[in-house]
Fold this sequence. Notes:
alpha/beta
Amino acid sequence: MKSCVTISSVPSLKGGPWILWDNLEKSLETASEIGFDGVELFTSKASIDTNVPLARLLERHNLTVGAVGTGAGKVLHGLTLTDPDSSIRKKARQFIKDMIIFGAELSAPSILGSMQGSYGNDCTRETAIRYLEEALQELGEFAISQGTFFIYEPLNRYETNLFNLFEDACNFCRSLNSNGIKVLADLFHMNIEESSIEASIRPNADVLGHVHFADSNRKPVGFGHTDMKPICECLKEINYNGYISAEAFAWPDPDTAARQTLKSYRQFFCQSDV
Length: 274
């Protein structure tokens, strides 16, 4: 497994669940200095403006990219894959395809979280699920064509009404006509929805593609009450070898949050007697 910290390059969304917020070059330097293996990027579009090419910056700081978030598509542009308006759904798919290309150039998958949308008003659950199915099948195959995969993230009930339980999301993704879809286990969302996080993950190891590492209150692990020991033991037992990525609030400040995250990562994943 590899440690990973989130970096947001969208100033207007400061205060969201991302650990590092300063300019990208400084954030990469901080992530490297603290000791992370990789970074997860949240950007407003499928590019980042830097004085030095991003790939060169990553190499300079000995960092990889664990994943790229697509949430700005909804938060900044109002795009979702289940919008009743077909023109908006089309724009949403194109936005995500651009992000998949951006991520693939960095050897990273992209994540579908808030851009999945919800059903209601002019869209029934059946219709929304059909829209999501069609989109994921297309995007999964597109990701494969770019040499990567695409990650679907089930969210808690307050953020979507499509799929809240990890197992339901995994079964849905297995039913798709694409092998390019993996599922994200976000420990914050799962703490709200699951009766047992580890029991939900264990039988679904085949489709697990990414882990968001956050405590019950979405603060860095160690600042809440989630029992992490059985979850982390489960991830080791199933031989998960992907990223453990801190998508959490920068509490009490970015530097402390990052250091607390890596401390917890090392406690649970780098010691045999946790």
